[in-house]
Automatic annotation (TrEMBL):
Residues 38-47, 202-239 have a biased composition (Basic and acidic residues). This is Uncharacterized protein. Residues 1-47, 202-246 are annotated as: Disordered. The keyword Coiled coil applies. The keyword Acyltransferase does not apply. It comes from Perca flavescens (American yellow perch). It comes from the Eukaryota. Residues 24-37 have a biased composition (Polar residues). Residues 81-115 form a coiled coil. PANTHER family: CILIA AND FLAGELLA ASSOCIATED PROTEIN 100, COILED-COIL DOMAIN-CONTAINING PROTEIN 42 LIKE-2-LIKE-RELATED. InterPro entries: CFAP_domain-containing. Keywords: Coiled coil.
């Protein structure tokens, strides 16, 4: 027995397994206890859930906060819609203004094009006149200048001075312009009553001249008619040769024949009808 105990004590491999087993068993038991506790706690949590709100005022505060946020969002949305409507109206007004300006510019462009065409036609006419003026030779220009000088001299004699002067054509034109300006100034200084009276006198003189011209034209026409009549009367009469023209024959009138019919039987019947009825009564 002593030898067996010594062998057990001396052999280290015999004690170690027993210690490990005890430790493993204790750890396993602790694990089982902990697991059982956790399972029991989890079952308690499942049956009794934790509340989010611990005080009713928290719920009221949250509802109030959410309501304020909703109101703020509604106000922001309303403000954005108003801004959008203002932008839409501004865009529409800008578009209408642009269309109106475009129409106005189109009309101006058309007007300018018409004016350009008119000015081009005028420039063409002026170019033709210049070419005609350049094509004229010196003799023709001298003739035209002489004719113009004669007209200016005639107007100068009638309106400014009827005496013979040695003034040039330009000086005569200057005198005519001065005379016209003086007459216009004098016309402006005349009272309206005298001016109206002078206009009436001029109109009456104009009408009388027109009447005299009309009478003179009528007398000339009458003289011309009388002259042609005398020429026809004094001219030799032409003898008409050939067959004389006869009027067209009228168709014969058809005579209507009236037949005399004896109406005595009808009278007898009427007489019999009238007087026979009286006899029967």
């Amino acid at each position: 027995m002593h030898t067996g105990l010594k062998e057990r004590v001396s052999s280290p491999g015999g004690e170690l397994p027993s210690i490990r087993e005890t430790r493993l068993s204790s750890a396993h038991s602790d694990t089982l206890v902990t697991t059982s506790k956790l399972d029991s706690d989890g079952s308690e949590y499942e049956h009794e859930p934790e509340l989010y709100f611990t005080d009713p005022q928290q719920l009221l505060d949250l509802v109030t906060e959410l309501t304020e946020q909703n109101l703020s969002l509604i106000q922001n949305t309303t403000r954005v819609e108003e801004t959008l409507e203002e932008l839409r109206q501004s865009t529409e007004a800008t578009r209408k203004k642009i269309e109106k300006d475009e129409e106005h510019l189109t009309l101006q462009i058309n007007d300018m094009n018409q004016r350009i065409e008119i000015e081009k036609a005028r420039g063409t006419k002026l170019r033709q006149k210049v070419q005609l003026h350049v094509s004229l030779n010196k003799e023709d220009q001298d003739v035209m200048l002489d004719a113009l000088g004669e007209k200016v001299a005639e107007v100068h004699r009638c309106c400014v001075d009827d005496r013979i002067t040695n003034l040039s054509t330009l000086e005569k034109l200057a005198n005519i312009e001065n005379r016209m300006s003086l007459l216009l100034q004098g016309l402006e200084s005349i009272p309206e009553e005298h001016l109206e009276m002078m206009k009436k006198i001029k109109d009456s003189e104009k009408r009388s001249r027109q009447r005299e011209e009309k009478q003179r034209e009528q007398s000339e026409k009458q003289k011309e008619r009388m002259r042609r009549y005398l020429e026809r009367s004094l001219a030799d009469s032409k003898k008409i040769t050939g067959r004389k023209l006869m009027p067209r024959c009228k168709p014969l009138a058809q005579k209507v024949r009236v037949s005399n019919v004896d109406n005595t039987p009808a009278e007898d019947e009427m007489h019999a009808y009238l007087f026979t009825s009286e006899d029967t009564e």
